[in-house]
Amino acid sequence: MLLEVGMEKDPDGKPIAPLDEYEVNVIRIGPYIIYKDINDDPLGRRRIYKSGWAKVPGSFWSKGVPEQMANLQRICNASIRSLINNQSKSAGPQYVYTDISRLPPGEDIGESFAGKVHQFTSIGAGVEKPLYTLNVESHATELLGIYTAFANLADEYTGIPAYEHGQGTHVGGAGRTLGGLSMLMTNAARGIKLVIMRIDKNVLRPAIQGTYEFNMLYHPDETIKGDVEVQPEGILARIIKEQLMQRRMEFLNTTNNETDRKLTGLEGRGVVLRDIAKSLDMRAGGVVKSKEEIAEIEAQEEQQKQIMLQAQMQQILAAGQGAPRTGG
Which of 55, 186, 293, 317 is disulfide-compatible with 289, CB 3.0–4.6 A? Predict the structure, then answer.
C-alpha cells in the first residue's frame, strides 16, 4: 500500500519491502491523503494528541454536547412547532360552509372579521344551517410539558444543568440557599473540569513528553538530558484547592459556637481563615490578624473577664455587709 501511494524508501533510506509491515502516520480527508510518513517514534506511538467531551469506547472520535443532546433537541423543536401550529388553529373559530352554492355571487369565503354579515340564498325551510363554527382544542399544556421534560433530560444527558449557564430561574431544594446553590454550581462544574483534566492528560502531557524524549535522543547538548516524567497538574490542583477551601468553610461554619471556640480558640480560627484568604489570592496579613494580635485580643478578653468577676464579687460582699443582722 505504501508503494501504491508513492512511498519507496523508509526513513533510513532502505527500499520499502512489499511484504513487510510499517507503522505509519496518515491523514486522509475523504478519498484524498494529505499527509503520509513512516512513524519514527521509537516506541511506536502515534503523535496525534486529542481529547473530547465524552469518550466513545473503541472510537477515535468523542461525542460533543450537541451530539449528546441531538435527539432530545429534535423532540423539543418538534413539540414547539406543534405548539405553534396548535395555537394558530385554536386561537379562533374555523368556519364550515355546508353548501357553498347558497353564497351570493362574488362572496369571499376566505375573508373573516368581527361583525361580518354572512348572506345566503334561501331554498326552503327545514334545511341544514349554511354556516357553523368549529373550535380546535388547545393542547398547549401537554406540549409545553413535553418540551420541559425533554429539556430537563438534556441537562442530565450532557451533565450541564440549566442553572449552570444562567437559564434556570427556579432551583428547588438545596439550590434555594446561597450555600446550597454554591455547592450545586461546584458539582455541576465538575464535568467541564474533568474535560480540561483529560486535555492535560491526553494532549499536553504526551505532547510535552514527546518533545522531551526527542530532545533526549537528538539534542546535541548533553547537559540538558536527564530522567524526567511530565505530570501536568494545573486543573487537578485547582479542583483539589476548591474542594479543600469548601471543606474549610464547612469547618468554620460547624465550629462557630461557644463550645468549639473553647477548644480551637481565636488562634485556631485564625489559622483556617489565613489559609482560606491565601486560596482566594488575598493578602492574608491584611485580612486576618497576626498571632501576636490574636494573643493580645485573648489577653484583653481574659482581663475584662477578671475585672467583671471582681466587680461581681465586690457587689456580693457589699450586699452581704449591708444586710441586717439577727441575734439569737
Answer: 293
pTM: 0.53
Q: CA 289, CA 151: separation in Å to the nearest integer?
A: 50
Q: What's the DSSP call for residue 47?
A: -
Amino acid at 129: K
Name the nearest CA neighbour of 51 among 196, 175, 171: 196
Domain boundaries, the chain: 1-48, 68-174, 193-315
- Cβ distance 152 to 95 under 8 Å? no
What separation in angstroms does the CA of 270 have from each of 247, 280, 283, 287, 290?
Answer: 16, 15, 14, 10, 8
Cβ-in-10-Å burial (0-12, 13-18, 19+) of 224 comes to exposed
Quickly list DSSP for 247-313. HHHHHHHHT-SHHHHHHHHHHHHHHHHHHHHHHTT--HHHHS--HHHHHHHHHHHHHHHHHHHHHHH
Partners of 26 in the beta sheet?
A: 36
Grid cell, residue 280, equals 482566594
pLDDT tens-place string over residues 161-208 = 765 555 544 555 544 555 555 555 566 566 777 788 888 888 888 888
